[in-house]
């Protein structure tokens, strides 16, 4: 089992750092899945128990100048590691002016992801700063616990408003309640609502648009039979929503959410080389 990768391009390094910073805001620990073509950051808190789930997917070719990995076996050419993304984020903070960053799997008293940062120096020799980040190797028998979540059979799918605008609205609302109602319809309308015994506050967004979903068999999603004016809604933990909005550094080119009424809100943030899915379960 071997893994080594190298980033030379400054823009790629900065982009990778922003992705890791976003992951670190969303998960204290997560699973890093390595394949020949992709990296995945996975959080699988049980939604049924009120936890959020996350699935972030990166094409390695868009970030790394060199990328080599050998999985646990020829027929299972993948590696699954448990890590603390904040540790990786801290290591990359030292790499802002780096000439190169090398990341590899090592064994130093315990399995580690070692980040070696080559920094420019006034002398002819470079300075190397090395960070050893302890990781847990996840055995093959547990890999099925980390499959890609399926897109839920949603009632409404809608594009999100500008995330900064949405964040400022939610930040103000969090002082009024611990939960927020997110509702939307197929007319491109979305509302954020706070309802307590003392106050009722609603922010309306219009003209957002609804993504065209086509299932694998080529048919339209079942939402086509739904009344366009009818609102689908879910009441969710406002802190979990704010965590997603406040931690966002990927600057997605597309952001949308799918609502399964009274069950779950599924967020999808897309950038050219990155896709991030985030699931927040509805409160009873």
From TrEMBL:
Stored SUPFAM superfamilies: DNA clamp
Keywords for this protein: Cytoplasm, DNA damage, Nucleus
Biological processes per GO annotation: double-strand break repair via homologous recombination; meiotic DNA integrity checkpoint signaling; mitotic DNA replication checkpoint signaling; mitotic intra-S DNA damage checkpoint signaling; nucleotide-excision repair; response to radiation; telomere maintenance
InterPro entries assigned to the protein according to its UniProt record, in alphabetical order: DNA_clamp_sf, HUS1, HUS1/Mec3
Record flagged with keyword Nucleus: yes
GO CC list: checkpoint clamp complex; cytosol; nucleolus; site of double-strand break
Subcellular location per the Swiss-Prot or TrEMBL entry: Cytoplasm, Cytosol; Nucleus
Disordered as annotated region, ranges: 210-230
Oligomeric form and interacting partners: Component of the toroidal 9-1-1 (RAD9-RAD1-HUS1) complex, composed of RAD9A, RAD1 and HUS1. The 9-1-1 complex associates with LIG1, POLB, FEN1, RAD17, HDAC1, RPA1 and RPA2. The 9-1-1 complex associates with the RAD17-RFC complex. HUS1 interacts with POLB, HDAC1, FEN1, PCNA and RAD9B. HUS1 does not interact with RAD17. Interacts with DNAJC7.
Similarity comment text for this entry: Belongs to the HUS1 family.
Function: Component of the 9-1-1 cell-cycle checkpoint response complex that plays a major role in DNA repair. The 9-1-1 complex is recruited to DNA lesion upon damage by the RAD17-replication factor C (RFC) clamp loader complex. Acts then as a sliding clamp platform on DNA for several proteins involved in long-patch base excision repair (LP-BER).
Identification of the protein by name: Checkpoint protein
Native source organism of the sequence: Gopherus agassizii (Agassiz's desert tortoise)
């Amino acid at each position: 089992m071997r893994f080594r990768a190298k980033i030379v391009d400054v823009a790629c390094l900065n982009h990778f750092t922003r992705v890791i910073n976003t992951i670190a805001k969303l998960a204290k620990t997560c699973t890093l899945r390595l394949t020949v073509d992709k990296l995945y950051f996975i959080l699988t808190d049980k939604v049924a128990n009120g936890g959020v789930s996350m699935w972030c997917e990166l094409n390695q070719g868009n970030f790394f100048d060199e990328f080599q990995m050998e999985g646990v076996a020829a027929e299972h050419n993948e590696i699954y590691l448990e890590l603390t993304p904040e540790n990786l984020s801290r290591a990359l903070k030292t790499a802002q002016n780096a000439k190169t960053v090398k990341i590899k799997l090592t064994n130093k008293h315990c399995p580690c992801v070692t980040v070696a940062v080559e920094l420019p120096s006034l002398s002819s020799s470079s300075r190397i700063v090395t960070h050893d980040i302890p990781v847990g190797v996840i055995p093959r028998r547990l890999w099925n616990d980390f499959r890609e979540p399926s897109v839920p059979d949603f009632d409404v799918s809608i594009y999100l408003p500008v995330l900064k605008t949405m964040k400022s609205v939610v930040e103000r609302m969090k002082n009024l309640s611990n939960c927020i109602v997110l509702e939307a319809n197929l007319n491109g309308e979305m509302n954020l609502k706070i309802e307590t015994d003392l106050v009722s506050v609603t922010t309306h967004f219009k003209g957002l648009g609804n993504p065209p979903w086509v299932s694998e068999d080529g048919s339209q999603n079942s939402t086509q039979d739904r009344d366009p004016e009818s609102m689908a809604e879910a009441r969710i933990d406002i802190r979990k929503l704010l965590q997603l909005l406040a931690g966002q550094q990927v600057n997605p080119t597309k952001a949308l959410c799918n609502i399964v009424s009274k069950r779950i809100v599924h967020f999808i943030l897309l950038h050219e080389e990155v896709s991030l899915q985030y699931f927040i379960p509805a409160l009873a």
